[in-house]
Amino acid sequence: MISKDEDLLAMFWQFTLLSLLAVGGLNSVIPDIQRYVVEDSGWLSARQFGEVYALSQATPGPNVMVVTMLGALVAGWSGALVVTIALFLPGTVMTSVMIHLNTRNPDTVFAAAMRRGLAPVTIGLTMSTAWVMLSTLSADWRGVVMAFVTALVVLRTRMNPLWLMGAGAIIGMLDIL
Amino acid sequence: MPDSSPAPQPRAAHGVITPWMIYLMYTKVTLVGFGGTMFWIRRKLVDDLKWITETEFAEYFALGQLIPGGANLFNMALLIGHRFAGVSGAFAAGAGFISVPFFVMVAMALLYLNFGAQPLVNKALTGMFAVVVGMMLANAWKMAGAVPRRWRPWAFCLVTFAGVGALRFPLVWMMLALAPLAVGLAWRDVAAARRAVAAAGESQ
């Protein structure tokens, strides 16, 4: 838990920076959020971080607002508010600039180059997130097996992810994990 | 500000759209949207309300993704809100996206603080976490299938993975090193391809 104002400010800048770097969505910066919250600051354990992430995915609301949960856990209401503003501020500023400049054509050379050039980087970041989260699980081989089985089910069927989460919760509670 | 539609389209059948309607619409879709908010936003905006067309949705989505900032769908919400009700519409859309989910997330955090360590809850969360990791693996696998079968995109993809995932280099340095190079090289390709198309058009 943090309480000092300068810590909140540091957290604000950290999340603003991560939000700016999040090409292709917040999921791509999860490894760095984990590093900041778990390794550098020691606010949560790697396992708790994973639990909170899973909980946020099962909670109604935009998935990116997992940072609001993290902020609330680390510093209560003010923490939640600070990281939420940090998450949405860069996008708000940039979108306002775009609206103002009236540059809404997504088909300029620059826009096309951004999409095409950054797409492989985004995919590399998605792989990184999966890898980092998988290594958090790896203390328990049963969790790893369950993750791979889930991946297969997701790839082979069109099952709603919520059912899978429910199944995961039940299997966990039955102490099979 | 002129009409901010990405391209001229026949107007969909709807009356005047007020900021309040935009606020309510976004509050609803973000709360229903477990797992995949985008799916619900598309369904509401395009299929149910018919505020925008399928093509417009795709264009707004592409634009929202292009703008930096962790929440692409939030950027898209601002654009759509602005399109229908100007600055107050953008505010309404942004507020709808955040306001109620903010309290829901904080409430969940409090529940986690109080009950997260209880054995049964904790075991359920462990199981859910394994499922979430599996969903991430599937996602990464699907996305990897979309990388073009050429050496350069794969090089960028694998260098990013090795740097950020395996070696855990800080993202800032990786992005400062990789992003300008990736966009610059792609720029050269795109510009060359368009020149070729233009030349082919002239020679006909």
What can be said about this structure in brief?
Chain A is mostly helical. Chain A has seven helices and no strands. The longest helix of chain A has 36 residues, at 66-101.
Q: What would your notes on this structure say?
A:
The complex is a heterodimer of chains A (177) and B (204). Chain A has 177 residues and is mainly α. Chain A has a domain at 5-103. Chain A contains seven helices and no strands. Chain A has helices at 5-21, 30-40, 46-58, 66-101, 109-137, 141-156, 161-173. Chain A starts with a helix and ends with a helix. Chain B has 204 residues and is an all-alpha fold. Chain B has three domains: 19-115, no CATH class; 118-146; 151-204. Chain B is 77% helix and 0% strand. Chain B contains seven helices and no strands. Chain B has helices spanning 19-32, 37-48, 54-66, 72-115, 119-144, 151-166, 171-203. In chain B, helix 1 crosses helix 2, helix 3 (54-66) packs across helix 4 (72-115) and helix 6 runs antiparallel to helix 7 (171-203). The longest helix of chain B has 44 residues, at 72-115. Chain B is flat and about 70 Å long. Chain B starts with 18 loop residues before the first helix and ends with a helix. The model of chain B is unreliable at 1-5 (pLDDT under 50). The chains are: A mainly alpha (177), B mainly alpha (204). The interface between A and B is large, with 112 and 100 residues.
